[in-house]
């Protein structure tokens, strides 16, 4: 219950003002956001609960919702099309945008998937969420874009046709590269209408991720949002310049990434995790009213590290995704197929395997295992984790988002 109150308090603030200020604070938002980095400890449970009492959460009959030159009446579900104003190959690829406008007022939540065109689990997660929503029972609006990068999707590719990674170009530039123009169009025509954003991804390049939420936990609104999903792993990650969630946060929109599974395949268990966690979040935001609200114990990792192999060869893992490991655990073994030389990959940390390569041929330097680094005090319920922590020094890792 405390977690729900804390989440609602921290989130209702941005819903009522934080993101609405984006029209005139985009330039100022990054500095303001960064200045909050040391204030995480300021939100004690008592403060949170006390403040929450003064928050009057009332829903009213919903208004018409305007998006992409369309007007969506209350209690209606529609399919719209977003079309980048510019297309590299001259082909027009209208991208479906699903919108469910509820019967009562509430936040506008955006779900985006397949910004990397070969990441399929998110497409199915968005489909299940959107088509299960009952407009008559929804408070607020949900915008779902199952396949943002249609160019990549048609070619089973992570990238746009010019090999650029779309998720490095947000919020975009109307006068920049093809990717920058597409990013700009999507950001300003769709994303700026959101109060909250969940961007769905999978591991890349034959790596798979334990279902996890990634977000900049130094920002209280993002941290509170991240804790609404009831998902077992939350990873602190500021994100890098050009990522959609990074740009969204800087525009005043609390945003997280939901990672689940691996690319180029559909994995039922990862999809179910994703759907359940988003339904949990919708419930806690007050947008839907589900009875079965699972509350899972979360592991919050403020540090993570990729463990690389030092020798090339054939990699076989000795651990499974999600497995708890200790320092000196053997994560896997690489065997050179010619010399038969065998080398073990050993964890330098206590923690949990939150991402890993599938068994394959690897070269020296290959990042094989993503470890959420365990610090004893980090295995706490959400409110404690948010309120008790200052930022540590995150270990740099290759971004797969
Ligand atoms: Zn991705």
Average pLDDT figure: 82
The stretches of 5 or more residues where confidence is low (pLDDT under 50) are 1-10, 12-56, 377-398
Structural class: alpha+beta
Radius of gyration over alpha carbons? 21 Å
Helices and strands, in order, run as HHHHEEEEEHEHHEEHEHEHEEEEEEEEEH
Strand count, sense and barrel status of the largest sheet are:
13 strands, mixed
Description:
- This protein is α+β, with helices and mostly antiparallel strands.
- 26% of the residues lie in helices and 27% in strands.
- It has 11 helices and 19 strands.
- Strands 3, 4, 5, 6, 7, 8, 9, 10, 11, 12, 14, 17 and 19 form a 13-stranded mixed β-sheet that branches.
- Strand 5, helix 5 and strand 6 form a beta-alpha-beta unit.
- Helix 1 (2-18) packs across helix 4 (45-53), helix 1 (2-18) packs across helix 8 and helix 5 (121-132) packs across helix 10 (268-284).
- The protein is globular.
- It starts with a helix and ends in a 13-residue tail after the last helix.
- Residues 1-10, 12-56 and 377-398 have low confidence and may be disordered.
- It binds zinc ion.
